[in-house]
Write a structure and sequence with these properties.
The protein is α+β, with helices and mostly antiparallel strands and 114 residues long. The protein has 2 helices and 5 strands; from the N terminus they run H-E-E-E-H-E-E. The radius of gyration is 14 Å and the shape is globular. Bound molecules: guanosine-5'-monophosphate and zinc ion. Pfam families: HIT.
Length: 114
């Protein structure tokens, strides 16, 4: 087992409901779904948070957002819309320290968050 639960999901040590996978990106259903669609989209490579991102990650981020759009399309979210969330650090509400983008949709989402 790795020290990071999402690295363990990438490695297959922890089961997940996968919705998309390629060589660099994995997407799976959140275990505590907050909306009819609640998918976590992650790089397979361990990056702790958005604070570590820079220009070097442009191609990887492009792949992540292409995956998000592909999943949104497959889930029928394109017309009504959806939300992409990245929680960063303690005040941002990040609890798993392997960067992930929440894709939420299938119901009306209120704004602003608490
Ligand atoms: P954060 O609060 O860090 O932005 O989001 C972490 C998310 O990971 C939470 O929504 C939580 O439900 C989800 N999560 C935590 N552990 C697991 C797990 O083992 N499997 C899955 N599928 N989701 C998890
Ligand atoms: Zn990790």
């Amino acid at each position: 087992m790795a020290e990071c639960i999402f690295c363990d999901i990438v490695a297959g040590n922890i089961p997940s409901e996968k919705v998309y996978e390629d060589d660099e990106v994995l997407a799976f259903n959140d275990i505590h779904a907050q909306a009819p669609t609640h998918v976590l989209v992650i790089p397979k490579k361990h990056i702790a948070s958005a604070r570590e991102l820079g220009e070097k990650d442009a191609a990887l981020l492009g792949k992540i957002f292409a995956a998000i759009n592909r999943i949104a399309q497959e889930k029928g979210l394109m017309e009504k819309g959806f939300r992409i969330v990245n929680n960063c650090g303690k005040d941002g509400g990040q609890t798993v320290h392997h960067i992930h983008f929440h894709l939420l949709g299938g119901r009306h989402l209120t704004w602003p968050p608490g």
